[in-house]
Fold this sequence. Notes:
The chain is mainly alpha-helical and 176 residues long. It has helices at 15-21, 38-60, 65-95, 100-112, 116-126, 129-134, 136-167.
Amino acid sequence: MGSRGGRRQGPPRHDMLLTRFGYPERNGSGGSPSLLSYERLIRDHGVIAAAAAALVRGLQAEASPAELVEAVKRLDAVLTPHLAIEDEQIYPLLLASKDAGQRVTAREAIEAYAALSASWRTFVAKWDEAAIAADQARFTADLDAILEMIQGRVRSENETLYPMALRAAHIRLRCG
């Protein structure tokens, strides 16, 4: 995860990707982001879960390495912008909360999944068609580990972080 409690200068590096994925554009050049919605973030979790399930079904159906790579790319296309929007727009607000309890809870949850974005990037880079063909058992084990991390982060967000962000008015309830 990119969040370490500090704020970067300038616009986020993922602005184009986020806009293409359908997240709200930033107000003006480098201004503050449009308010995200709980509804949208939860819907994204459903899309991520569906892409992950399709990848697992491909493994179970003994899909070819090329088909598995395409399934990884589909999951990457939805997961990467979602992680970026959380890391860049939601987590810094939670970490800066005036409520000490919220800050501690947010920091603990965020630190628990701090390696997810980097681990995902490593996974995507490592497992091309040739690597999967050479060692599908290791691919499956690595996939299980990364999907467990994703599932844990989603659970933490759904049960703790998003409700905190909603209560603190860092996100709104419904899409505009």
